[in-house]
Design brief:
Layout lengths: L2 E5 L3 H13 L3 E5 L2 H10 L4 E5 L7 H9 L6 E5 L4 H10 L3 E4 L4 H18 L3 E4 L2 E4 L4 E4 L2 E2 L4 H11 L6 E2 H9 L7 H15 L3 H4 L2 E4 L3 E4 L7
Helix pairs in contact: 2-3, 6-7, 6-8
């Protein structure tokens, strides 16, 4: 589950937009001004920030500079004033997108999804198949941000399948790769390992259905890579 931080001095907009995002399955935190939004970054790790430009006190551009000192997550600017100079300035600063008020929730969520996909693709050492992420450096897998607690063999099995480009991986392939050898009676061992892996993936129905059984042959990974 992705976490969003909404920073805007329009309380009504915050309430309506945050409720819509929560209904769509996001964790959402809100802040009524830039300073409170910056304080929130100490307590949470948002996956995307939606930031109003025109706010009293610290405006969105100054808040963005301070946000970038702390995190590289995607930032989408919101504004009721969208001159070309403002838009260019925001994008040159490194903002991921710019959307004008009033906006439809459907459009805003599409912009958020797009920013999250780009962010996932640019994260080094991570294979992202939302809601599943495979951390190559840390040799672990996460679902909705939670570590699945895979064993070394379970991780190796998942990684092998996820990097197979949608091809069928046979029992023999798995045995030779994970255990270093394979005999016909090793199939049951492979199947037990797969059963344990699937049980851990079962925390999310989307992740649970990413591995397809190919009868009498092996398995096929059908998860959709983020951004592809």
């Amino acid at each position: 589950m992705y976490t969003l931080l909404l920073i805007d001095d329009d309380q009504e907009m915050l309430e309506i937009t945050s409720a819509s995002f929560r209904d769509s399955g996001y964790n959402v935190y809100i802040s009524e001004n830039a300073r409170r939004g910056l304080d929130a970054l100490v307590k949470i790790s948002p996956d995307c920030i939606i930031l109003d430009v025109m706010m009293p006190g610290m405006n969105g551009f100054e808040a963005f500079r301070r946000i970038r000192e702390r995190t590289k997550v995607p930032v989408i600017f919101l504004t009721g004033r969208i001159s070309e100079d403002d838009k260019v300035s925001g994008l040159l600063m490194g903002a991921d997108d710019y959307i004008e008020k009033p906006f439809s929730f459907r459009e805003l969520e599409a912009r958020v999804r797009s920013a999250l996909r780009r962010s996932a693709l640019s994260t080094p050492g991570v294979l992202s198949f939302p809601p599943l992420e495979i951390d190559i450096v840390g040799h672990k897998a996460l679902c909705d941000g939670e570590d699945l607690g895979l064993t070394t063999r379970e991780y190796g099995l998942l990684y092998m399948l996820a990097t197979s480009d949608g091809k069928v991986v046979t029992y023999e392939d798995i045995g030779n790769h994970i255990w270093g050898s394979y005999r016909s009676n090793d199939r049951s061992t492979v199947m037990v390992s797969m059963s344990r892996l699937r049980k851990k993936l079962d925390v999310n129905p989307i992740a649970a259905n990413m591995i397809e059984t190919v009868w009498t042959t092996g398995y096929k990974f059908i998860g959709k890579r983020a951004g592809l």
